[in-house]
């Protein structure tokens, strides 16, 4: 797999990300995603290139475990493929301002992933911002508990949904009850992709 020339590898990843954007990848079921992996292998711009360097089953594994494993983080401006996505989600800086206010900003060098998190501050106060989509809420809770145990700045969970997605009042209420139980603040944001008009709705 490492035999793929870097230029070709990047071109293939760009093509994969374009197709994932068009499909609204986050909204696809696991079975739908598997179907598209097969279709991409039949695509001359993807599978046709990979076929020169690896067997078909290896190519499917490469697509799933390399570019698509990093897709969500890349859209948030994190990871080795961040420069290859066209449809971006708000990054740490934008989310800090949307979730905390215009005077807040990430502390340089603190951005980490799995889940996405960083230290943010306004010059007087600091917090540990931990963010992700609703499906990652369990990871946000675990990271928040670790931040408390490790005596880091007070964690704040940001549950981020995209325009067109909607949490029910019951889901939001459950997030808040869990956050209250562990003594951590949770905020809900709805944002648009960065290549569209940027909006945010905080609840």
Set out the fold topology:
Blueprint lengths: L5 H18 L6 H12 L5 H4 L5 H10 L5 H5 L16 H9 L4 E2 L9 E6 L4 E7 L4 H13 L5 E8 L6 H14 L2 E7 L8 E3 L1
Parallel strand pairs: 3-4, 4-5
Antiparallel strand pairs: 1-2, 2-3, 5-6
Task: Summarize the structure in words.
This protein has 203 residues and is of the alpha/beta class. Helices cover 42% and strands 16% of the residues. The protein has 2 domains: 6-84; 92-202, Trna Endonuclease, Chain: A, domain 1 (3-Layer(aba) Sandwich), CATH 3.40.1350. It has helices at residues 6-23, 30-41, 47-50, 56-65, 71-75, 92-100, 137-149, 169-182, and strands at 105-106, 116-121, 126-132, 155-162, 185-191, 200-202. Strands 1-2-3-4-5-6 form a 6-stranded mixed sheet, sandwiched between helices. α8 (169-182) links the parallel β4 and β5 (185-191). The longest helix has 18 residues, at 6-23. It is elongated. The N and C termini lie far apart (45 Å). The relative contact order is 0.10.
């Amino acid at each position: 797999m490492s035999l793929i020339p870097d230029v070709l590898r990047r071109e293939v990843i760009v093509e994969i990300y374009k197709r994932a954007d068009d499909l609204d990848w986050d909204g696809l079921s696991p079975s739908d995603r598997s179907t598209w992996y097969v279709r991409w292998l039949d695509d001359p711009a993807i599978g046709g290139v990979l076929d020169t360097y690896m067997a078909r089953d290896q190519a499917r594994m490469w697509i799933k475990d390399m570019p698509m494993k990093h897709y969500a983080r890349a859209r948030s401006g994190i990871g080795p493929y961040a420069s290859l996505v066209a449809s971006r989600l708000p990054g740490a800086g934008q989310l800090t301002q949307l979730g905390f206010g215009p005077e807040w900003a990430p502390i340089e060098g603190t951005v980490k992933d799995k889940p996405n998190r960083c230290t943010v501050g306004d010059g007087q106060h600091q917090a540990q911002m931990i963010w992700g989509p609703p499906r990652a809420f369990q990871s946000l809770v675990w990271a928040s508990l670790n931040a408390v145990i490790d005596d880091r700045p007070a964690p704040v969970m940001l549950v981020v949904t995209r325009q067109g997605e909607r949490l029910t009042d019951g889901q939001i209420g459950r997030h808040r009850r869990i956050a209250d139980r562990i003594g951590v603040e949770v905020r809900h944001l709805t944002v648009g992709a960065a290549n569209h008009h940027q909006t945010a709705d905080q609840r």
